[in-house]
Design a protein that fits this description.
The chain is an alpha+beta fold. The protein is about 40% helix and about 20% strand.
């Protein structure tokens, strides 16, 4: 039997009545009630641009990890970090890592690169025409930049990388995007730039596509590792050796040995990251703070580097090469997400680097805590006590 069509209202679709009408259709056709999804405080009229066919709210539990002590260029001081998750032990684990790093004097976070991309492809009748086109693009960068920036007040075209194969030439437009994540901004700007390029009628051009999978939107890639997508952030700390046993129930030597095993394991299985679980911290903060959750695909890849100092202290850093965050636009302005950002003073203009520094430091704390739990043989017992292993 065909399912009933979900109701829509052409001019007034974002109301409680329309949401209830759609839930009623689904309840009638599925035979199951949608009571809890119909309970929410967010006004439906705030949702255009965030969702279509609004029908209710799916609630995810949220807790605060911390305090996190941070010495960033933009995030300085102590922060409670909102984390939305259904995984027991997660908030406790990150809080434990934050306790250790706070006792060690705090984490230093640094944003070292920033650009969002779109990578159109131009197909020519032969490789020589594609090569000549690449040279022409380099010579006409200022005109291309001007065309791109007609579409945005905050976006700036930084440079255009070029990649060649056969008779194709990919142009990877790198743009800064202010406090927005910027994918849509960069798509619009790149489209305008490419329309200007096409109007110049490049010799030998056979085909053009605004995207052909080289910008690696919503997926990680080797080019992101090397050239970044979003914010490239490093969080680092040196932890005195004597702090490990009282808080983590292990030694710095234990962690260094485990790091060698983890590096080899990641290499053998072809992992995009040698970290233990970057995605846990990134996804939990993204959910709480109104980020595009699909960007966890890029944002959760990264590198862990450690050193055992001559005096026994432990240096650790995490590098996230493609952290895509926003403090303005998208889901950041929704009431609950805005509250979570405001709790860290990360909502609005001039706050994106601050949020990036906090997330990178949070990831470092999670890596420390999980590695310590593994080497101290507390990983399973902690899930028995707090997580889904409970009977």
């Amino acid at each position: 039997m065909a399912l009933d069509k979900l109701p829509r209202h052409k001019s007034n679709d974002y109301t409680r009545d329309m949401a209830a009408a759609r839930r009623t259709v689904v309840e009638t056709n599925s035979g199951h009630a949608l009571h809890h999804t119909g309970q929410y405080s967010i006004p439906p009229e705030a949702l255009p641009g965030n969702i279509e066919g609004f029908s209710g709210i799916v609630q995810v539990p949220m807790g605060f990890a911390g305090p996190l002590l941070l010495h960033g260029e933009h995030a300085q001081g102590e922060f409670y970090v909102p984390m939305a998750t259904t995984e027991g032990t997660l908030v406790a684990s990150y809080s434990r890592g934050m306790s250790l790093t706070r006792a060690a004097g705090g984490i230093t976070s640094t944003v070292i690169d920033d650009a969002m991309q779109r990578a159109p492809v131009f197909v020519f009748n032969d490789a020589r025409a594609a090569r000549d086109f690449g040279q022409w693009v380099t010579q006409h960068f200022e005109q291309i930049k001007a065309a791109a920036e007609t579409t945005t007040l905050s976006g700036k075209l930084r440079d255009i990388e070029q990649y060649a194969a056969s008779k194709m030439r990919w142009l990877r437009f790198n743009m800064t995007t202010g406090d927005a994540a910027g994918q849509n901004m960069v798509s619009k700007a790149t489209h305008a730039a490419c329309q200007w390029i096409l109007a110049q009628q490049p010799p030998g051009l056979e085909h053009f596509s605004l995207a052909a999978n080289f910008d690696t939107d919503k997926k990680h890639s080797a080019v992101n590792n090397l050239h970044s997508r979003g914010k490239r952030v490093v969080a680092e700390i040196t932890i005195p050796a004597e702090l490990f046993q009282p808080i983590m129930h292990c030694t710095a030597e234990d962690l260094m040995h485990q790091r060698g095993l983890s590096n080899l394991g990641a290499f053998m299985c072809g992992s995009v990251s040698n970290g233990a679980h970057f995605a846990n911290g990134v996804a939990a903060v993204f959910l709480a703070c109104g980020q595009d959750i699909a960007n966890v695909a890029e944002s959760s890849a990264g590198f862990v580097y450690t050193e055992l100092k001559d005096n026994g202290d432990y240096y650790m850093s995490v590098t996230i090469p493609s952290l895509i965050v926003a403090t303005y636009g998208g889901g950041t302005g929704l009431p609950t997400q805005r509250e979570c950002l405001q709790a860290m003073d990360c909502y609005g203009a001039g706050k994106a680097y601050k949020l990036a520094e906090i997330i990178a430091a949070t990831v470092l704390c999670g890596e420390l805590s999980l590695a310590s739990a593994i080497v101290s043989n507390e990983w399973v017992s902690s899930h028995d006590a707090y997580g889904r292993n409970r009977k």
